[in-house]
User: Fold this.
Amino acid sequence: MSYAVKNLNEGDRELIAFRIGDQEFCVNIMSVREIRGWTPATAMPHSPAYMLGVINLRGAVLPIIDLAARLGMKPADPTARHVIIVAQVRRKVVGLLVDAVSDILTVTDETVQPTPEISSELERQFARGILAIDKRMICLIELESLFPETESEAA
Amino acid sequence: MDMNEIKEIFFQECEEQLAELESGLLKLNDGDRDPETVNAVFRAVHSIKGGAGAFGLDDLVAFAHVFETTLDCVRSNKLEPTQDVLKVMLKSADVLADLTNAARDGGSVDESRSRSLVKELEALANGELPSPSALAEAPAPKAAAKPVPAAAAPTAKPTDESGFQPVPFSFDDFGGEGDAGSGMPAYEIIFKPRYELYSKGNDATLLLRDLSRLGEMTIYCNTDDLPGLEELDPEGAYFFWNVTIKTDKGEDAIRTVFEFAEWDCELTVKPVEDARADATSNDELPMVPVPFDLSILDESGATEEVSASNARAEETAAAVAAAEIASNVTQLASAAARVEKKESAAAAAAAASAAAQNNAAAGAGQTIRVDLDRVDRLINLVGELVINQAMLSQSVIENDTTGTSSINMGLEELQQLTREIQDSVMAIRAQPVKPVFQRMSRIVREIADMTGKSIRLITEGENTEVDKTVIDKLAEPLTHMIRNAVDHGIETPEKRAAAGKNTEGTVRLTAKHRSGRILIELADDGAGINREKVRQKAIDNDLIPADSNLSDEEIDNLIFLPGFSTADKISDISGRGVGMDVVKRSIQALGGRINITSKPGHGSVFTMSLPLTLAVLDGMVVTVAGQTLVVPLTAIVETLQPEAAAIHSFGANHRLISIRNSFCPLVDVGRILNFRATQANPVEGVALLVESEGGGQRALMVDAIQGQRQVVIKSLEANYTHVPGIAAATILGDGRVALILDVDAVVGASRGQSLKAEMSLAAVG
Assistant:
């Protein structure tokens, strides 16, 4: 795959689309570092339920988050077919466990529709908008909102 | 490279120069009279001044200048480096370090201190000299012209750099004869700058002006190389200078002037034999400064002895000649006596310089400065390589049944190579503890000054190497312990005299390697720990019950308890709210242990055992509730297999284990880390007896011990967050992450402090 050849117009952005259950989501490609298969994680004590633990990413300790559980859906039961999206969120690198990565989308800002008025606070908190592409509905996730900044504690 | 980077390099170099300066002064203090040591000290201050000048750090330049001036008096033997003189100089070195730090970090410096030191330095420089201005201008001629009583002559007489003083001789008899420079060696200098000199912003004129301060100088500018206008490169270097200078400061001083330019010019300096011969014959002066070829200083000790004895012979001859024309008989006697004295001095100097050269040869090596980040990255990568290699070996062993294939042999070689690479990469970060030890000598001086005690710091094994991170973190606890030793440990001179001890107290700081760890020992010859007082204080502060029966060792260790200070009244030095408990904690945070042994009346010894590096940790790999954990080996006192009879229930859900008639709380690691809902059966597991910061023991229950291993420490905080009860993570041979247990936190949690910090959604960010 060559990413560089595409000429992006002003306002265009590239997104990585992935699947959790029967729903589709996407995140900005700029924050994705790599995509890799699932490997068993080491459990962390006192962690929230969606924290699957940590794995070794070429010498760095990478925390893995079950994105399904984080989004309030049915927690994943990770298998070798699951995929970890290694993403950079602010200064930290985290792994997001998803069912599968589907494709790379190039969209303009206008394509992104605002999140519909729904009652659930959780979904609205993460969703930055909705994309309608080929009859698919893809939810755009803002990674930063998954991990609000509380650097004082971690730093 | 912008200005700030250049400045940063300058400050790094300053640090080295300051270290050099201090170690040189301390050597002088110990009686080393090697001119090379004096020169090194002088050079250090000179370089700092030069650099500071370039950056416009005026305060620093001003102070360094005064300091340098005084040092120059020592260098030219106008000032005897006595203990008193050196005391001022050591203080000046401290102030110079302060000023450098202030210039770097923008802090402030105690101005009254530097001002009074400037006065002292100036007084020292002036004390032995006729006038202050003579020092920078042309001190020698005036010194020669001024009538000096014969007895005072040795200190005021011009000498060369070798440390051999010319025969003491009154110039009274020859006053007015010859010119002012007579009797001084003359040098012919050819100074030919290259283009590079100018391109670096140096100026030949400035160098020549500096040179002129050394003595009487005639100068001739040679323009022979100047090409025609059409060939002239406006940025080229075409002029060169022939200089003849009469100076008593020797060839080295001349070369020092050109120190900053030595790579960028052609420089020849040679003594002019004729001029001196003329002077001698014309004036019939028997006193001829002994010609001394400085190059012999670079030869081995043996050659030096020979030259030294030659020099002595010449000196003796000169003395005899001097005596012949001396009308005064007593003068003859005193001259002869002094020659004898100097012979032994010369022999000592020769020996000292030989020793110094050996040191220099051992200590000097080629070094490069590397960004710490780069080294860390390399270390990380090598750690990865080691893990990968282990994984590869594992899979080859699993898949290969023949056992002797070439793959196996290749793997073995790879294993050896990776281990070697790991060792050498670790060695890159290793540094001698010397800089920390040197800082300590300053602290000893300051506190000794404040408390009016006389203290001698002896350091040993300062070339012992430890990881840089350990060195950085060692300074603080060590400073505190030295403060304690000087303030509380060592008695006042009066008390020492009364106890029949040397009034000068001794603090000995030793570093050595011992079985993969570094052992740092701090010993003082003070009064030792007053056990009765310590015990009473502990009882008063409710730290121990009044009727407790403690061994001497246990009482000594009480001083590590929080809130303990043995000083009757809080002094300026130690009353800062930090006690030995902080010291112990910071040592433990480094993965080290601290011990104390004390003999009443004979002093105390603090022994610290520290890991050589913080990047690696010796750990016990254990299994807890199906998870692999690593427990730092330093925390573990012993391991044992609990028997059912030894387990006692205590209250609703506490259990104690009896070990040699004492009861120790059992802590189920799996439970406390929330890995399981109920406590495991202790009889099925293994108990790790650990010692926590409070000194209390706990038995940590784990399911099984896998073995001991050295693990590379990885940060959890970098991508995750701090996890209560977990100190860090590591990667095991199978590529999986294992968590390193924070023993202190787990023990603390077992005392009832909650381990569960706010592990909210936010904390994952």
Observations:
- Residues 1-5, 151-155 of chain A have pLDDT under 50 and may be disordered.
- Residues 121-126 of chain A form the longest helix (6 residues).
